[in-house]
């Protein structure tokens, strides 16, 4: 009888200890932001549209972040946190603010300490609000609307040049290239798609161009999903500007170029103002010869950066396709930046990460510009949106000289010469 | 604003060229509406399908888009026929709302199927004669658009001939005017409906291939053409193919003229204003059903 | 006595009670999912009045939503007027727009596809106006400057308030639907839906009732617009106007059961989670859930013209129990 009760007690105690151990294992394995002291795994969120009309671009963005996270882990994780690994939680915004908001809520609930993206301004308005509320830093890759950063938020940062910066850079480039090639450039026509994107840039560009002493003959908006741009292009033809400055998405950029060629509209330069469409991969591949010599300012990665070639090769290997320069190199840089900030903070506490981000002087990136450093609004101070030109079917960076691979061709040859 | 005669004339020409495509798409829609009293909201999706087919033929086997019509027209014909047989036929006598919802659902399905299969990437092609053009007195007429115009014109003529002069055409007309009566005189209205939906779809099969050289292909591309097509249908339903054709030209010209005189993105308003005016004020003697 | 009615009432009260208690256990993410379900249920109910009961398919309901959103937001941002008052103003404006649209359509005898096309055109025209009119922000839209927690200014730091307001809106709109369903108006609307000519011949003033239906529908839809604006703190033409949005609005009542009291709400409760599930787990495949919705619409239209709701109800009403 004594043996029995001893056995009973023994079994009971053992079972209890086993159960407690099991619970302990489960609890210990879960990522808890509370134990920020020495976490094993740090969660980073990424919000981009991976469904809907911008899905390809959104995916390119997330792949960039993904590669960065994987490389940081492969190189030993976060050194100051004893090699803690990063884990990427990628979310789809569907391109809608209400979905972006929900995605941010979920990511934060799941325990992310920082969020990369989104690139769409309307979604960014919503996600940065959530980030600010929970004090989780957000590093936006693009997202051009001014008031994303001017709302007094402390937890939002943006990598790409603001519209003001981009417009000034565009005006400076036009003057410089005119001088360098000894060509007179006095008049500009801006033609832009009419959503927030095109309209914002058009406004800023007009002011910057006029301040630089050139004349804006006309600003021509068009609906981006239009079937036909011949009338708009006819208007440009009648105005005979020195430079045609488009701001377009991809399909309309293609339509625009075809119309310009068909209607034989000649200008000394065809230079996009941060035109995503003209800077897209599809632009030269869809247009063939027609794309030749087209120039655009675009948020390209720096092909001369020491990390660029290895990034290119690694991306191609990992995703079976070469990277789309803008989305992938910017988000790759964002990922590395966040890792660096965590490392410098020596903590996975989002507040500390925010402080580290604000003090960033990050050189190990792929952007065109000096070290990533943010001003008091969270805008990256030192970034330039370079100018690319389609030369022999490839998009080559031609300005500023520091990031250029080749010298630009200016003025543009005539359509007849291009099509020969 | 620099307004001169050549600018306006160029816009007129472009409007006519583009309008012929709207006309072709509209004729297909009008045919279906006239005979079966169904507004096919999936019409744009069908055009999208034709464009993708033509695109893949070009990219895979370098088939010229105009040549690809030999494939897109019959393909869309049969596709339309199947849609009629499997879907539309079941609601042919149902309430309008049911019919509309069916085609709206179909359009939702087809557009997003394309999105899932082909990704949202915009696909454009460049044919060798891309920018070749005819220059008449300072007005530039792009060859691809001119060819599209001539094809649209030719197809309209062929359809007109078919409807007016052939037995089958007469049967179609009879069914549209008075279905019960047509059945009484021995016309197989079911077969007529198959044929009609097939022909209506074949129209966008042609239109899709015709616009590929100067437009682009994407899952939502149908929207850009289906709204003008609706306007065309409402302007003049199935009274007279030529009236419908001219209706298409009017819509095209209104759009391109609008783009000249009205600040850029409001040009779409011009089309809608016409649409609305026509909806309210055009007498619809044929559609008193 | 236990009968079908009291069972249904019991179920209704139980679900309502559950929903009212739920937010106490939900974290913000799931609360957000519920809030959007409630919002779309409101819009679905509103649409059902004209689209389901009256059988006039409107493909431009986003216009009323947008009018509500823009009106209250503009008044708030520019003149500091409380969004609650703005909501009333927005509803009034939407109601007037509906009156005008309805009057023109019904006066000119636009029925069936013509009415659908007219509403489509209306929706698109509103979108174009918003896109091109600088006074309302043009394509940039309107960003609502962040406020402190304030009931007066319809801004809350905690989602739970939005939850209860959305729930209230959903409940009220369902009540409206219920009242219409049980009233003479509902009867007339259904008669108009089934055979307008016969109804006219029987002495029903079809224009008047259709007009009433579309106006009430617009009023309710607009309140949803104001709620959305205050919840997201940002509106732009693409978000609140547009055909895509109109289609989203009609999916729920159609799949759930148009022309019924609970069909629209059911549709919202089915499609909401489904959308979110698809977003989380099918993210890589663009548009698959919309494709599924397209199929669902077609299936419902072909085989369940009254929607899933009534069919479910019939299934649940076991034979042998008291017939209601």
Give the strand order of the largest sheet of chain A, numbering strands 1, 2, ... along the chain: 7-6-8-9-10-11-12
Separation, N- and C-terminal Cα atoms of chain C = 12 Å
Quickly count the helices of chain A: 13
- Secondary structure class of chain C reads mainly alpha
The total of beta strands of chain C comes to: 2
Largest sheet of chain C: 2 strands, antiparallel
Structural class of chain A: alpha/beta
Looking at the structure, the CATH topology of the largest domain in chain A is Rossmann fold
Shape category of chain A:
elongated
Q: H/E order of the elements of chain C?
A: HHHHHEHHHHEHHHHH
Distance between the termini of chain A: 105 Å
Instruction: Give me the Rg of chain A, rounded.
Output: 25 Å
| Helix percent band of chain C | over 70%
Strand order of the largest sheet of chain C: 1-2
Word description of this protein:
The complex is a heterotrimer of chains A (420), B (289) and C (324). With 420 residues, chain A is α/β, with parallel strands linked by helices. Helix content of chain A is 44%, strand content 15%. Chain B has 289 residues and is mostly helical. Chain B has helices at 5-36, 43-61, 65-86, 96-118, 143-165, 167-177, 179-184, 189-211, 222-235, 241-261, 267-281, and strands at residues 133-136, 139-142. Chain B has a two-stranded antiparallel ribbon. Chain C has a domain at 27-242. Chain C has helices at residues 4-21, 28-53, 62-79, 83-107, 112-132, 159-182, 184-194, 196-201, 206-232, 237-240, 243-256, 263-281, 288-303, 308-316, and strands at 142-143, 234-235. The longest helix of chain C has 27 residues, at 206-232. At the B-C interface, α4, α9 and α11 of B face α5, α11 and α13 of C.
